[in-house]
Amino acid sequence: MSSPNSGDDQKPSEEQAEKTANSEDLSKEDVANEDLEPDDTLRGEENEPFTPEISEEVETDWQKMAQERYDQLVRLQADFDNFRRRVDREREELRGYVTGAILGEFLPVYDNLERALKYMPDTGEAKAWRMGVEMTLKGFNEVLNKFGVTPIPSVGTAFDPRVHEAVQRVDSDHPEGIIVEELLKGFQWKDRVLRASMVKVSTGQDAQDVQESGTDSPS
């Protein structure tokens, strides 16, 4: 049989449990509010944002590292510029070599046209043929000049071993070292010799003087 006061005994227990729950909720709310409040230790005077201090040693290390990276970049850029200039120079040299080799292959054709004119008569039926060869040779010269190919001066100029090839030394009334005859025309492309001129060079002594000196010599 239940006691009549059992209902009254349960009410204080329920009220006590409710107070305990409310106190726990207040404690949780206080903790949450504490988490949301800014930490005064992270702020300077007058509520300024916190700025971390960097030691001079660390700052010096950073500057040194940045300078090293900059020096490496400068050296790398210089190496690349040198490489690019070297490649451009080699490309120009190769282009000049190929162009000179191709132009040099046309020179024998020029020689044949000149020989044909030298031995072709200028009279009769051959005159028309000669005019045709002359026109062909003229057009050939125009093409060579268009590409910068020019004949090397020879007869009447001083012998130059860079552009002339002496085939024979002859006595003449010209000063010594002067070219008196051209056997094969030479050509140059810009500053490059495609083919040296084959020439005869004067010794500076007249043939007649040589004969006279030979007859006057004692027997």
TrEMBL record:
Q: Which domain of life is it from?
A: Bacteria
Positions of the region Disordered? Answer: 1-59
Broad class of where this protein is predominantly found:
cytoplasm
Query: GO cellular-component terms in the record?
Result: cytoplasm
**Entry-linked CDD domains:** GrpE
Q: Which GO terms describe its biological process?
A: protein folding
PROSITE patterns for the chain = GRPE
Alphabetized, the UniProt keywords read: Chaperone, Cytoplasm, Stress response
Family membership, please give it. Belongs to the GrpE family.
Query: Could you give the subunit structure recorded for this chain?
Result: Homodimer.
- Supply the name of the protein: Protein GrpE
Source species of the chain: Sulfobacillus benefaciens
Gene this chain is encoded by: grpE
